[in-house]
C-alpha cells in the first residue's frame, strides 16, 4: 500500500545550437521543482556530455536500490 | 445544437469588434483594452495565452492540453466555461468556428509580432527597408510568459527564444552595415545576454565594437567569451572568432 508520499517532479530543458564547423553546443537547464525555483544551467559540447547531465539529473530522483 | 457548434463570435453592443485590445505575453501576461489593463484569473489567462500562441485550435486539443488530468467530457465542460467567461470579460474575444476556437483577429499580440518580424527578417534577408526599423522594437521584449511551466509554454518559450536570438544577430549585422551603431550595440548586447556561450552572438558584438573603432572593447569581449567557454566546456573559440580580433604579440594560447 502506498502512503501519501510527496510526488517528486522535475524539469529539464535542452537548447541546442551549432557553431561553425558543425560543433554542437547544448544549454541544459534543470530543476527538481516544477516552478523552476532551483534551476541550474550547464553546457555541453558533445552528446556524451549531454547524456551525462541527463543521467545525473535522473539519478537525483531515483532512490538507489 | 450546442451554442459553440455554430460559427459564432459574440459581438459587443453596437456590433463592433473588440475595443483596441492588445495582449502581452512577453515578459509578463497582460490584456489591455483601450489602454486599461483587464484583470482575469489565472485559468482564463492560460486559455487566452494558449489560443494566442497556437492560433485556431480544435476544442479537443485545447481541452486536452489545458486540462490533461480529467476525463475529456470534464475538460470540454471546463473549456466551455472558460470561453464563456473570457467573452464576458471582453465580448467577441473568443470565436467558435465549427469545432475550432480562435481569437478575434483584431487582437494584437506582442509575441506574434516578434515572431512574424523574426521570420520575415530571416527569410527575406533585407538590406535596408523601413519595416526592419519599425520591427526592431518587437525584439526588446524578452521571454514568453516567464514563470509559467506548462509543457506547451516551455516549448514555445524556447522556440521563440531561438528565433529572437537569430533575429537579434541578423538585425545587428544589418545595422552595422547601415552604420546605425547605437541600436546595433544594444541588440548585440541583448544577444550575448540571452546566450553568452553562443559564438555568433559574441562575434556580432565584436563587429559592432570594431565598427565603432573600440578595439579595446572588442578584445575584452573576445577574452570574456574565451574565458567563459573554457570554464564551461574546456574549449577554445573557433578560428573565425580569433581572426576577428587578432591577439596582441606575446600572448599565449592555452594548451
List the keywords.
heterodimer; A: 65 residues; alpha+beta; three-stranded antiparallel beta sheet; 1 helix; 35% strand; elongated; disordered N terminus; B: 255 residues; Arc Repressor Mutant, subunit A; Serine Threonine Protein Phosphatase 5, Tetratricopeptide repeat; four-stranded mixed beta sheet; 10 helices; 7 strands
Description:
The complex is a heterodimer of chains A (65) and B (255). With 65 residues, chain A is an alpha+beta fold. Chain A has one helix spanning 47-59, and strands spanning 11-19, 23-31, 40-44. In chain A, a hairpin with an 8-residue loop joins strand 2 (23-31) and strand 3. The two termini of chain A are 19 Å apart. Helices cover 55% and strands 9% of the residues of chain B. In chain B, helix 1 (42-54) packs across helix 3 and helix 6 (151-177) runs antiparallel to helix 7 (181-194). Chain B has two domains: 3-106, Winged helix-like DNA-binding domain superfamily/Winged helix DNA-binding domain (Arc Repressor Mutant, subunit A); 110-244, Alpha Horseshoe (Serine Threonine Protein Phosphatase 5, Tetratricopeptide repeat), CATH 1.25.40. In chain B, the strands form two sheets. Chain B has a four-stranded mixed β-sheet with strand order 3-2-1-7. Chain B has a three-stranded antiparallel β-sheet with strand order 4-6-5. Classes of the chains: A alpha+beta (65), B alpha+beta (255). The A-B interface holds A 11, 13, 15, 17, 19-21, 23, 25, 27, 34-36, 42-45 and B 147, 149, 154, 158, 161-162, 195, 197-200, 232-233, 235, 238, 240.
Amino acid at each position: 500500500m502506498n502512503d501519501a508520499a510527496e510526488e517528486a517532479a522535475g524539469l529539464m530543458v535542452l537548447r541546442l545550437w551549432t557553431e561553425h564547423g558543425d560543433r554542437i553546443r547544448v544549454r541544459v537547464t534543470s530543476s527538481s521543482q516544477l516552478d523552476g525555483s532551483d534551476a541550474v544551467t550547464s553546457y555541453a559540447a558533445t552528446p556524451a556530455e549531454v547524456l551525462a547531465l541527463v543521467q545525473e539529473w535522473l539519478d537525483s530522483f531515483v532512490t538507489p536500490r | 445544437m450546442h451554442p459553440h457548434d455554430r460559427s459564432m463570435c459574440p459581438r459587443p453592443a453596437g456590433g463592433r469588434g473588440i475595443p483596441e485590445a492588445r495582449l502581452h505575453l512577453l515578459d509578463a501576461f497582460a490584456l489591455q483594452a483601450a489602454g486599461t489593463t483587464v484583470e482575469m484569473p489565472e485559468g482564463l489567462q492560460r486559455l487566452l495565452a494558449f489560443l494566442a500562441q497556437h492560433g485556431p485550435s480544435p476544442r479537443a486539443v485545447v481541452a486536452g492540453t489545458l486540462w490533461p488530468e480529467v476525463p475529456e467530457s470534464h475538460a470540454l465542460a471546463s473549456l466551455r466555461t472558460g470561453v464563456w467567461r473570457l467573452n464576458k470579460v471582453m465580448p467577441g474575444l473568443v470565436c467558435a468556428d465549427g469545432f475550432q476556437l480562435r481569437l478575434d483577429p483584431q487582437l494584437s499580440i506582442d509575441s506574434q509580432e516578434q515572431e512574424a518580424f523574426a521570420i520575415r527578417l530571416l527569410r527575406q534577408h533585407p538590406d535596408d527597408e523601413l519595416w526592419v526599423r519599425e520591427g526592431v522594437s518587437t525584439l526588446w521584449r524578452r521571454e514568453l510568459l516567464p514563470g509559467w511551466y506548462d509543457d506547451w509554454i516551455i516549448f514555445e518559450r524556447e522556440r521563440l527564444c531561438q528565433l529572437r536570438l537569430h533575429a537579434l544577430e541578423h538585425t545587428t549585422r544589418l545595422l552595422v552595415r547601415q552604420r546605425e551603431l547605437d541600436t546595433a550595440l544594444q541588440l548585440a548586447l541583448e544577444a550575448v545576454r540571452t546566450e553568452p556561450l553562443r559564438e555568433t552572438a559574441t562575434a556580432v558584438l565584436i563587429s559592432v565594437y570594431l565598427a565603432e573603432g573600440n578595439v579595446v572593447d572588442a578584445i575584452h569581449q573576445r577574452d570574456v567569451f574565451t574565458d567563459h567557454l573554457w570554464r564551461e566546456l574546456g574549449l577554445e573559440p573557433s578560428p573565425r572568432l580569433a581572426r576577428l580580433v587578432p591577439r596582441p604579440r606575446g600572448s599565449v594560447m592555452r594548451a
